[in-house]
């Protein structure tokens, strides 16, 4: 893993917030509580966790246009925020959450590979803080978070398996993937693809082993930040 730091309580107004740094990638994550649920869940006795994701114009080496200026979100943005939302929900008992929604906003301040993984890892910290606030106020009696959720990228670069690729490694990797796991070892999602190369089942197993190691380190960083 590259150097990992998670600074909590960085937003005055959000119910939960953190700034996560993984190498040179930096993502601001905030969690906002609302005492309502989407219409399709009304009266179901379940809560909802969703996410939004965006990159600031100079989070990359050249300025990108704001999506709001373009009038619509790009396909990559939509895909990533759906990934963040379903990843975080995999660690939530939505019945215990009750009929309320928590929205996790992930804004990339600086990108150097692994932004979606950093957003998921930091997003869970912000979510944990928001839930802690609910529990402290007595609004919920049982902890709805069943396990931490974290994510890391792995790939094969110059023929070698690597953990936590930066942008230069990721852009040249023959195989790369994102691994989202819970702290109890359960797998939420694996996104793997080959680019100009293929990979064997044995290599996939090696990358899975690396991902488990990396997620273990990230969960330890989450717990330390929340202590």
From TrEMBL:
InterPro entries: ExoRNase_PH_dom1, ExoRNase_PH_dom2, ExoRNase_PH_dom2_sf, PNPase/RNase_PH_dom_sf, Ribosomal_Su5_D2-typ_SF, RNase_PH, RNase_PH_bac-type, RNase_PH_CS
Gene that encodes the chain: rph
Originating species: Allosediminivita pacifica
Record-annotated Exoribonuclease phosphorolytic domain positions: 1-130, 148-214
Family: Belongs to the RNase PH family.
Name of this chain's protein: Ribonuclease PH
Top-level taxon in the UniProt lineage: Bacteria
GO biological process assignments: rRNA 3'-end processing; rRNA catabolic process; tRNA processing
Residue sites binding phosphate per the record: 76, 114-116
Record EC number: 2.7.7.56
Record's subunit section: Homohexameric ring arranged as a trimer of dimers.
Keywords in alphabetical order: Nucleotidyltransferase, RNA-binding, rRNA processing, Transferase, tRNA processing, tRNA-binding
